[in-house]
Amino acid sequence: MEDKGAVPGDGEELSAGELEILRDEAEERDEGPASKEERLSLKIGKLTVGEKIRVSLRAGKEVRGLLMKDSNKQVVLGVIANPKITVSEVEMAARMRSIPEEALRQISRNREWVKNYDVVHNLVVNPKTPAGVAVGLLPRMRAKDLAFIQKNKEIPDAVRTAAKKLTAARNKNR
Questions:
Q1: pLDDT of residue 158
Q2: DSSP secondary structure of 73-102
Q3: Is residue 158 helix, strand or coil?
Q4: Nearest Cα to 125, choosing from 79, 169, 69, 163?
């Protein structure tokens, strides 16, 4: 019996549902984007978790966007691991409040992504980002954004306190 939850290697064949989603996404049709997105969303909803993980590793932009909102952590991590994911998609993911902590940690570990200021900013101001990750990114923040972080009650106390200390240290060195 096949393990549906396992992430397959490249040699494994896709199920009919997975193939249909990837084909539909690749096809250009004359229908509006809303109907295409609705159709993909319905098809994705019928997939098992294992199938969603397999699709997330190969999917194009539209399907990645839908799978990024999935409630299963492994599916979201699969989208983050997709080699086609763009910095703008990562920026959007770092802003999402529904994304799992592990996905935010994974984003923060990628050097290419954290070179982008907007990704760093979104990670720091996201209340779901673990405090250790957010504090480690604070030195990259601009003074104006540090002031915002100090006042934002949604951000954990440890991050706000570290932002205050960093601002004081920067002002002292002037």
A1: 96
A2: HHHHHHHHH-TT--HHHHHHHHH-SSS-HH
A3: helix
A4: 163
Please answer whether residues 87 and 104 qualify as being in contact, where contact means their C-beta atoms are separated by less than 8 angstroms: no
Instruction: Provide the CB-side half-sphere exposure for 126 (13 A, CA).
Output: 29
The 3-state DSSP class for residue 173 equals: coil
Do residues 72 and 50 make contact, with C-beta atoms less than 8 angstroms apart? no
Q: Read off the pLDDT of residues 154-163 as tens digits, 9 standing for 90 and up.
A: 999 999 999 9
Q: Where are the domains of the chain?
A: 1-84, 86-174
Asked if 93 contacts 99 with a C-beta cutoff of 8 angstroms, the reply is: yes
Residue type for 5, please? G
Q: Which amino acid is at 102?
A: E
pTM: 0.81
Comparing 115 with 173, which gets the higher pLDDT?
115
